[in-house]
């Protein structure tokens, strides 16, 4: 049994909270579980600074329809679920995995997440995993399914040592399900409406129970759809927690008319960033939440938030010499681990130094980062800002905001700058490696402090140091604390909330 919950950041085991990730490393996780998550960028928020994942698009078909999904939409420049530029055979996929593994030694996880449903394409999915397990046994296997066919494949999943399974569960109430799923195809028959949703929820929950019973780590994805399931997701959270889910990832609906989905065409809105955070916070009392999901493409490659899939197209892979060297990969990863250990200890001490005060002030800060847990990105080059909630108990990663590039060649359009500032307008400060004069003055006008004095330093220690001086200034009356978390963020059509 795990110890009582201290500061935590996004992981729970069998429904019990456990420290993990960014500020605490292994924390209270049992060694066997920590071994599974420590190099998985989706299961450990701290690991996502260092380790990469890849998806291979070997599963085109699906056994049901969600009102938010259209897999016919294909765009090389767009990163969101279901989108892929080319589909692969298992053999092509295995070659691609080896090619990526040899060029990106910190790539530790192979996921199959579509573009359809991996378990609606079981032969291709399991053949791919078999080939990869044989050729590159150090790579962790991970799959993401709607759960409809899951109970039929649990034994195979266990046999192939697929350690991580994600199930998308958007409802446990069939009335709500009928508004999300027009039909399912089950046992050679098409079902719709309530009947379809009843079968789906039964199969999803029993699949989750079966996997948990075998010690396979399950993450539950839920898509937050305003007006349909947002309050209900608190019930979903309780239901999956009680069935042993390890982590809950509530993601915002992505819906736009040009995607050609039912919700997009009907004008169903996406949640605001503040609504998503409020729901994640409400569920966190029950179970810790994943907040760093990037809603990746079905063929994504690289660190979360970066997409190197264009470097590994079918055409390029055919001509690549693959030199998969397990010893070199091991050495790179051992270096990363040594660095993580060396950095985490002083960070924990620093947090403790500042902890224990009496202030209940909490603020959000935005950080421009290219990864490795550092403030190492220019404001104008940031594709996204990571957002941390800072208080006297530490700095906790709570999400990220993706924005279009403001600075293309040094001169951003004024509207783009305004959009970027709107995307972080619930934050008190933005931490950057560098920033120009105009954005500095525009941020000041909006009451957001640009902070560049911690360039190339660690995010958390810098956030805590900045926060201590912020509190000092509030205490001395030099500044007045203003609560900016007023739900004022509006979703801008240019921006994806995440
Ligand atoms: C493309 S699916 C593939 C795996 C599987 N078919 C499933 O649905 O779980 C991967 C994840 O993306 C989510 N997803 C797909 N379209 C989405 C959208 N428009 N907005 C938000 N999430 C979406 C799915 O719900 C699922 O959790
Ligand atoms: S189950 Fe997955 S692939 Fe199938 S329609 Fe839904 S989101 Fe798309
Ligand atoms: S979609 Fe989310 S859970 Fe899946 S690989 Fe990307 S970040 Fe990880």
Automatic annotation (TrEMBL):
Q: Which domain of life is it from?
A: Bacteria
Radical SAM core domain boundaries: 48-297
* TM region(s), chain numbering: none
Kindly list the cofactors needed. Answer: [4Fe-4S] cluster
Protein family according to the UniProt entry: Belongs to the radical SAM superfamily. NifB family.
What is the stated purpose of this protein? Involved in the biosynthesis of the iron-molybdenum cofactor (FeMo-co or M-cluster) found in the dinitrogenase enzyme of the nitrogenase complex in nitrogen-fixing microorganisms. NifB catalyzes the crucial step of radical SAM-dependent carbide insertion that occurs concomitant with the insertion of a 9th sulfur and the rearrangement/coupling of two [4Fe-4S] clusters into a [8Fe-9S-C] cluster, the precursor to the M-cluster.
Protein name per its UniProtKB record: FeMo cofactor biosynthesis protein NifB
Protein's organism:
Bradyrhizobium xenonodulans
Top-down, what is the taxonomic lineage of the species of origin?
Bacteria, Pseudomonadati, Pseudomonadota, Alphaproteobacteria, Hyphomicrobiales
Supply the gene name: nifB
